[in-house]
Amino acid sequence: MAEQTFTLIDDGHVSAVRAAIDGDHIRLKPEVLRGALGWELKPQGLCRGGVCIPASDHPDLLSGDGVDLARVAALLARPLAVDTQERVAYLGVSAAERSAQLASLEAPDFTLPDLNGRPHSLSAHRGKKVLLVAYASW
Questions:
Q1: What is the pLDDT of residue 1?
Q2: Can you give the pLDDT at residue 118?
């Protein structure tokens, strides 16, 4: 199967990678997986830094075309949204990370411009009461 350029988004980091696409399956060469996500296949399993997730009970993780991105996401317990026609995938945050964020009761930071174009960040108002007004036309 021929490789194509594919966009992979993980934690706000966008990577243009080469991937083999077969239907809904996206396969990355092991070195591409390591470069884009920091995870690599070792005899111990899927590893990054000093952390390894056993992968021996996932024989379909690696094939001749590369590492199956959906299987990697499943091993990491992270949701994966894929649009093969647009050749893009988004690797979401794990449920454990989302739960920890919610438990902290701290809203994630963001920056948006006001009507005059001046940027304002939520973090600049920590400890103060803030009213957010949102509008959608749909």
A1: 65
A2: 93
Residue 81 neighbours by CB under 8 Å, 6+ apart:
89, 90, 92
β-pairing, 88-91 vs 80-83, is: antiparallel
Say how far apart CA 95 and CA 76 lie, in whole Å. 10
Q: Which residues of the chain have a pLDDT value below 70?
A: 1
| Tokens, residue 35 | 């470069």
C-alpha span between 97 and 50 (Å, rounded): 19
Residues 6+ apart with CB under 8 A from 101: 93, 108
Q: Are 18 and 8 in contact (CB under 8 A)?
A: no
Among 74, 77, 79, smallest CA distance to 61 is for 74
Domain spans of the chain, in order of start? 3-96
Distance between CA atoms of residues 8 and 11, nearest Å: 10
For residues 83 and 85, give the distance between their C-alpha atoms in angstroms, rounded to a whole number.
Answer: 6
Give the distance between the most distant pair of CA atoms in the chain. Answer: 56
What CA–CA distance (Å, rounded) separates 73 from 93? Answer: 10
